Amino acid sequence: MANAALGQAATSDLYAKVSLALEEHSGRIKALELLDGSRVWLKRAEELSPRLRVLKGDAAKGLERDRTGLRLLAGAGLPVAPILLEGTDYFVTPDLGRTLHAMILDPETDRADLLAAFASAGATLAELHNSGFCHGRPAMRDICWDGKRVHFIDLECFRPGKSGPKAYSKDLLILLHNILSRNRDSRVLADEMIRTYREAAPPGVLQHLRVRAMSLSWLIPLTAPVRRLKPSSRELHAVPATLQFIWGLGIA
Ligand SMILES: Nc1ncnc2c1ncn2[C@@H]1O[C@H](COP(=O)(O)OP(=O)(O)O)[C@@H](O)[C@H]1O
Ligand SMILES: [Mg+2]
């Protein structure tokens, strides 16, 4: 079923490209170039061996959670990837720009653009929370910047019933840890994200974030030996950085 907003020529081109890709490729994600110069992304359930299925979970269920989340949030007017075309085991979304992860890794990324993208991410996460939704795993790889605003593109960890300041504070913790796992300007970008989040934060979230960070302080000494053994593990090294960042926010 194709999105009604597409014109007839664009719809038949989209159908043709997607049908071909479904026949010829088996990968999970594929970018497709359309005749009008635009790009779309085909996402499908990964076919996993029984062993990987145990390790990674049921891919079909993951795709359904993603699809349900995208539909629900789009219905609430929130900026998520719109579904252009879909079938039982796939869906297609328009290209929504580079991910924050790609932007932060690219030394050529314009600094003003980078700051604007992270500011938009904070404001958009607050918007989601103010609408009563918890993202589940807001990581930089799943947030795209189109030059004007961000969109969430991957809602595989979304749980429709989950809401409230405690759940929202976990979203913030995940995003902060993800940002602080990178070198380039990560502190400044985390500041920018949290600044706009705070401007619109639902009541109680930052207090819950502080309590979470306090209750996780034991992670710093616990991970110290592993951090020494694995000096290149960004995620491990970001643990103290994230907790200290939150303690330094001056939350009352
Ligand atoms: N609509 C989109 N616009 C721009 N990039 C996208 C889009 N959909 C997917 N991507 C790219 O593909 C990657 C993987 O897609 P994602 O939906 O996050 O699936 P996965 O479940 O594999 O993480 C993203 O990190 C992003 O780089
Ligand atoms: Mg993803």
User: Regions with pLDDT < 50 over 5+ consecutive residues?
Assistant: none
At the third CATH level, what is the topology name of the largest domain? Transferase(Phosphotransferase), domain 1
What top-tier CATH class of the largest domain fits best?
Mainly Alpha
Q: How many helices in DSSP terms?
A: 10
Strand order of the largest sheet: 1-2-4-3
Per CATH, the architecture of the largest domain is: Orthogonal Bundle
Distance between the termini: 50 Å
Q: Number of domains in the coordinates?
A: 2
The main sheet comes to: 4 strands, antiparallel
Q: What small-molecule ligands were found? A: adenosine-5'-diphosphate, magnesium ion
- Looking at CATH, the homologous superfamily of the largest domain is Transferase(Phosphotransferase) domain 1
Write the H/E string, N to C. HEEHHEEEHHEEHHHHH
Rg, please? Answer: 19 Å
Give the integer mean of the pLDDT values. 92
Give an account of the 3D structure.
The chain has 252 residues and is α+β, with helices and mostly antiparallel strands. It has 2 domains: 8-94, Phosphorylase Kinase, domain 1, CATH 3.30.200; 98-247, Transferase(Phosphotransferase) domain 1 (Transferase(Phosphotransferase), domain 1, Orthogonal Bundle), CATH 1.10.510.10. It is 53% helix and 11% strand. The protein is built from 10 helices and 7 strands. It has helices spanning 8-24, 50-56, 59-75, 100-105, 111-130, 165-180, 186-200, 205-215, 219-229, 234-247, and strands at 29-33, 39-44, 85-87, 90-94, 98-99, 143-145, 150-152. The chain has a 4-stranded antiparallel β-sheet. Helix 5 packs parallel to helix 7. The longest helix is centred in the middle third of the chain and has 20 residues, at 111-130. The protein starts with 7 loop residues before the first helix and ends in a 5-residue tail after the last helix. The model has no long low-confidence stretch (mean pLDDT 92). Bound molecules: adenosine-5'-diphosphate (ADP) and magnesium ion.
